[in-house]
Specification:
homodimer; DNA-binding; DNA-binding (chains A, B); transcription regulation (chains A, B)
DNA sequence: CACTGGAGTTTACATTGTAAATACCCATGC
DNA sequence: GCATGGGTATTTACAATGTAAACTCCAGTG
């Protein structure tokens, strides 16, 4: 991926059609590997992803992957980048906005879509060490940041304000979506119960919590997200002054 | 940690004085192990923490740890809990507040203090699967949540509002602090450079970014944190209505 | 045909988490 | 004194992992 590629490579047509039961043995390539990794984590969770298993998933021995990927850590970086590129596509597909408010809304929803679609991957997106110190998670793509800043510029934001907005925006998305994806993941699996060590959730000794258990349980993430987003936009309005 | 303990146990005096070069061989216990783990991660990073190395750090073989801790995963849960207990102490030490605004400020700053003190651990705090679905990171302690809700109650918040505030508060802290701690970690080490794969940060093709590199670099986390906090409080004011 | 270079495999090894068996030690029975 | 026993730490062992190095296989070129 040194040579950045749009949707053009050795395989434009026939996208996403490799099954676990190997097809006619198309030769490996980086994209195939990354896509397989994304899919694998989505299904089995990050902790189950090993080079050997990913290899098997692609009908190949583990070591074959190393010709296309420097190592596991970098593979994970690639996964993050891959997922965020999904975002980039979503975003640009969404038609033009008529106001900066709409623009921010669209961007926020696009990121949330990703987070909801890949709850097992999103924590990775959020915690991987940033490749540049000012590339704040979850917005890790230079291309994305560039286009975002451009967008703000087009709506008349001055550079300094744009940066501030970018920061608030990133913080907001990170907080909301990391929480939501964490919960989503939970619902899916429940891999290994950690109770009984350190934490015996005996609510009886926590009266305030018991009193509102119902409200606490209820996800309501979407509502909360929208509310916080509205609020952020409000805040940006002030920044613009 | 089933029997929760304040500062009282086999060792009240002489706190934190175990060096790598074993002392007179005090017998192991869970607290010692957890504290050692926290310290170890602070210094060497999570990825370097192995049972063997932690053992060595305590002057003991790896397997000795298993008498006090079920396994590595649970050890990490314990680390999180340990760090968050630090928060609990900080918070209660801080004297009483005279308004709910002050109260929220104090809590927020307490959490931030932790995040800044343990940047390598905070991502763990943020991403570990929650032991209860409504225990939102980074506020993972039942005790803490209970006391927080109690606090709000004392300032006249109605239950439903308290829950909403708790959520917004958690989201805000998670976003801000995860970003900040991520950056802090970066400055400390730089363990393994991931450049040259997927990401050759050649700014020349990103004009908007280049134009504001300076502003982007500059941390300014504290300022941003305070601003966002003010804003949250503003928002809570509205919620209270 | 021999040959060369790339794609995938085999083999190998150090490191990890952890189970099971063992050795150690100190306090109590006589 | 010595046996004994219960808890604490060590030893040994093993399967799983990431990855280096050598190897096999084969298509395409001279």
């Amino acid at each position: 991926m040194d040579d950045r590629m749009g949707p053009a490579g050795t395989e434009d047509v026939d996208a996403d059609a490799e099954a676990t039961t190997a097809g006619p043995r198309r030769p490996l390539d980086q994209m195939r590997i990354l896509r397989a990794a994304v899919e694998f984590i989505d299904v089995n969770g990050l902790s189950k992803l090993t080079m050997r298993r990913l290899g098997a998933h692609l009908g190949v021995e583990a070591m074959a992957l190393y010709r296309y990927v420097p190592g596991r850590e970098q593979l994970l970086d690639g996964v993050v980048e891959m997922v965020m590129d999904e975002l980039y596509e979503t975003t640009n597909a969404g038609g033009l906005s008529t106001s900066w408010q709409e623009y921010l809304q669209m961007q926020a929803h696009a990121v949330r879509t990703i987070a909801v679609k890949h709850p097992r991957i999103f924590p990775l997106v959020a915690t991987r060490p940033p490749s540049a110190p000012w590339l704040r998670p979850p917005l890790r793509s230079l291309r994305w940041v560039e286009s975002f800043l451009q967008g703000l510029h087009d709506y008349g934001f001055r550079p300094k304000v744009s940066v501030a907005v970018y920061r608030s925006f990133a913080t907001f998305l990170l907080g909301s979506l990391l929480l939501e994806s964490g919960t989503l993941e939970d619902l899916t699996i429940t891999e290994k119960v950690n109770l009984a060590f350190i934490e015996d959730d005996d609510l009886s000794s926590y009266p305030m919590i018991s009193a509102v258990t119902e409200e606490l349980k209820d996800g309501g993430f979407e509502v909360e997200f929208e509310a916080a987003l509205e609020d952020l936009i409000e805040r940006v309005t002030v920044m613009r002054s």
